[in-house]
Amino acid sequence: MPLNKGQREAVEAPFKPTLVIAGAGTGKTTVLIERILRYIDEGIEPSRILAITFTNKSKDEISHRIRKRSPVESSPRIYTFHAFFYWVLRKDIGKLGRDKDFRVIDENDQRAIFRMILKEKSIDSEGITPRTMANIVSILKHRNPYEQPLERNEVALHFSRKYELSFEDLADVYNAYEKNLREINVLDYDDLEILANNLLNIEEARKYWNQYFKAILIDEFQDTNDIQFEIVKKILGEHQNLFCVGDPDQSIYGFRGAKAGICREFLDTFEDTQLVKLEENYRSTQNILNVSNVLINKNSGELSKVLFTSNEEGSKVVYREFINEWDEVNYVLDEVQYLIKREGASLRDFAILYRNNFLAVPFEMKIKEKKWEYSITNSVEFYSREEIRAVAAYLHLVFNDDATDALYKIRALPPKGIGEVAVRTFETFKAASSYTVLEALFNIDECPELTTRAKTAFKELGVLIGELRSKKDLGIYDLIMFIIDKSGYKKYLMEKKELGRIENIIKFAEILKSDKGADNWEVVKEIPLKTKDVVPKTDDYILLSTVHQVKGLEFKYVFVVKMVSDVFPSYRSITAADKSEERRLAYVAFTRAKKRLYITKSPYSSKGSIVSNRESEFVTDIKGLPFVDARVVTKKWFS
């Protein structure tokens, strides 16, 4: 496809600082590739061209497309920021007096360290997870003297207030994490940035890179943070040949330190800059763009743009409001089924998007019932949580005479004085007899391998299971509440201040309660005791994802669900900057849709009570538009 006017203007721009504002679906990757090929055509040695992307997937795509097009054997240097910083440090980290044999930890390793520290320090504050703490420490690391104890600065106090965590606890976690990294000689991604920046303050190191690269390109520039931009400026030679592509309206990583105003800063930094806007969208229908434009234009800014397309006008954007969560879920999945039948769609054409991972739970439950293939991105599956597995194990023991493996899950939740070796011994004893689990527990004196103390613990467990079984005809919700009370598990979690786990159990009970018509055992049989990763068996599957995880992707049909106040935008969005970022996040969600966009809302409940039932302010902004079909569904929606 030939370049359009805006794309051609960007590719053919003179070799000086150039900022391309590229709206969603406007072909920015094509522009980057064509610009690189132009550099090569103009005689720049490919290995002296540096292109920075934000994901390995983008890096691989650009590399592949250039290899197909370029007659030159050598290739441009295409890296993610952190891979490039690793290269810089591998060459010269000795100049900083550091050990060259450092190792880099990824985000999973990082979260494992935070998980250990939070557990060691018994820190339990609402919203504080290893992932959240990793994001907080990442931001603080750039505002605190490097490798020094955390100072009581404004940003640290902001996080302390936001997460209801004392400054002392926050400092304890921060300092313990830094100490842990130093002791094992590893660097995280923030260390790579800070040390690369420090290294480039040394003239000899800086001059090497100034002379090495003749052209620098940056993709997704709006997600660049201060220190990354500082490093780019330091390696930029006298040629000032810098080409950045980004969209301020898709800046959604403020929690990682990305700076929303970085595009404006680019224009202020260099004296002779060029600004090009790409506004012709190749992805979506005009109606989807109309709604997206209205939404994002509430965020005022001189770098704003208005997307348009030569695609068809398309169907109106659909907004539906429901009286409860299950009506919303049933409607969405019914609509998926309808579109598969009516328009010949496949499951892979659909994405269900939400603000937070926990919102996937009811959708996942119903999709499993339908036996559809599905994938959940970047999420711990709800059923793999420790507290859910524990309650599931108790339920299996209530209804299943043979559920020996469930003992492994409940023996320490709460602690019962039964070790793993004792459970294995019990398992062998039961297998050698004709006893059921409950019979084996009451006849445990026949097992000579167990200590008297272990036998007493097993007998007490038998009494507990007997009491739980006496209530198995209760409704499933009431049964679960009885289990966590009678077993002492609820008290155990409360003493550990793990109230979030109790809330998850209540949510779990509510989900099971929704299976009207099924008896309790039929419901329990569907609960997996051994959890597995959600890996689709085929490439035809429906995607459930947070909005953050689908940036850069597109789908024929998109459902943006749970558009309710305090969920989307998040209740944690306090400042004007926070609210603006939430609006940009909604814009990213809307602009993933190619053919049809659905927005849905139902009340948000927590601990069995409705917390919020006001529509999202983003819905208020668009539901009265002529290209939106908005309705409140007051009757019960049966799947």
UniProtKB/TrEMBL annotation:
Record domain UvrD-like helicase C-terminal: where: 286-552
Binding site for ATP: A22, G23, A24, G25, T26, G27, K28, T29
Domain UvrD-like helicase ATP-binding: 1-285
GO process annotations (BP): recombinational repair
Segment forming the signal sequence: none
Top enzyme category: isomerase
Transmembrane regions: none
EC number: 5.6.2.4
Catalytic activity: Couples ATP hydrolysis with the unwinding of duplex DNA by translocating in the 3'-5' direction; ATP + H2O = ADP + phosphate + H(+)
Pfam families linked: UvrD-helicase, UvrD_C
Gene3D superfamilies: 1.10.10.160, P-loop containing nucleotide triphosphate hydrolases, PCRA, domain 4
A GO MF label: 3'-5' DNA helicase activity
Keywords for the protein's UniProt record, in alphabetical order: ATP-binding, DNA-binding, Helicase, Hydrolase, Isomerase, Nucleotide-binding
Family according to the record: Belongs to the helicase family. UvrD subfamily.
Protein name as catalogued: DNA 3'-5' helicase
